[in-house]
Amino acid sequence: MVRMLIVTILLSSFTVLAQDTVLIENVTIISSHLREPKQNMNVLIDDGRIAKITKSKITTYDSSVDGSGKFLTPGIMDSHAHVSSIPGMGFGVEPVSRKHPKLAEAYFEQQPNSFLYYGVTQVLDPNPGLNFNHFISATNHPDYFRCEVITSEQTFPYVEKKDRKSRSMFTYLIDEKALKNEARSAERVVQKIAQSGASCIKLYFEDGYGNASHWPLLKPQTIQRIKASAEQQNLPILAHANALDMQQLAMAAGVDVIAHGMWNWGQYSREQNISEEIAQLLEDMISNKVGYMPTQRVIAGLGEVMRPSIADSVEFVSITPRALLDWYKTPQAQWFKQELRAGFDGMPDESIADVFLFGRTRKGSQIIHYLKESNYPILLASDFPGSPSFANQPGLTTFKEMHALSDAGLSHKEVLAAATINNAKQFKIDNDYGTVEVGKIANLLLLDSNPLRSIEAWDSIDLIFLHGRPIKRQSLMVKNNE
Ligand SMILES: [Zn+2]
What is the pTM of this model? Predict the structure, then answer.
């Protein structure tokens, strides 16, 4: 049961007005519905949608783009990105970002451009918090869909937030203790979420990071009630779960999408390969068509932030405000690294980085590989920024997640599908998105290189079409970064 994600777009994303007709001439179309790329095609966009695709000459149009030698693909969808969260600072309401309002503002101003710079034209945000207005009020921004979080004062992620302001980001708290508290019952909260225009519900199955298990979970009866109400309201449920036992609980609860890769398994048994127990869970996922979001960049972001050179990454210069890059090098900005170190008992930074980059990432890759072998459609979902790590920057993280899928064994064709049609189908928006076909919203990319030949081709963007309007990639770079 997944409801169409249309509502949010109608409410929030039509800042781009109806356009004149635009012709893309003599281009090679690359799209998951085609067996082979289609060469020498003319694509006419009218009123923000694809109106005609033909080999014949089109003579009536308002403006044209020469597509000779170039490749036209659907825009990318990242189905797990948090636009209220600032890399290195946490959510905009948390203490570190409150201390640096100017940096937060500069960041939020650039963020939608950074996603578009990397070709991301749709995002699904599973925990929008309170700052997503920055995003949807920008002149140019990817089409925005959101889930809302249901948690309680006793469970994650509420329990992890220490001050009132940070806790205020949870608008939909239920109260499991007071059964008579109508306003905070499972049914009432689900109803409020549906009325807010959200497209889905996010539930957390998290009893502690890594091997820890000190946080309580919502009671099974509560989850059943949420599930029943969500079905009535046609809201799919995304489950935060990244350990084997937590994903088993989420599957038993009947969720629609597992919103994280399975990184945490075999810590005690020294097990290095997929066991029968894991295979069973994955087979359940496949037969029940439960979506799977690998989110490999969460783990990579934890590893990379431990490397001192990360703030000097060349890619950051195009998309991250200079003042924020400078801040990343200050002692204050190292707070999250200190937290990570505390969990590793004096281990050197480089070894901590390896635990994430080689250990847990490899486990996630094995799961991806298993699903790929079963032809199961993987979703492109980065969980940007994934943690308060500043190693993950908007858009770039989505691009790197595509690399991670490729590293785990997906073919270029499978990465294309993960980034486009698989997400569109999973969230029932494939009437509007996911392929280059007549009738669909013209969120498209014009690339200089062929993405069926290399993943790097996704970084060779010439133009981004947003509801039919061409935007030069260069114009999306962060300003005043000299
Ligand atoms: Zn997330």
Answer: 0.93
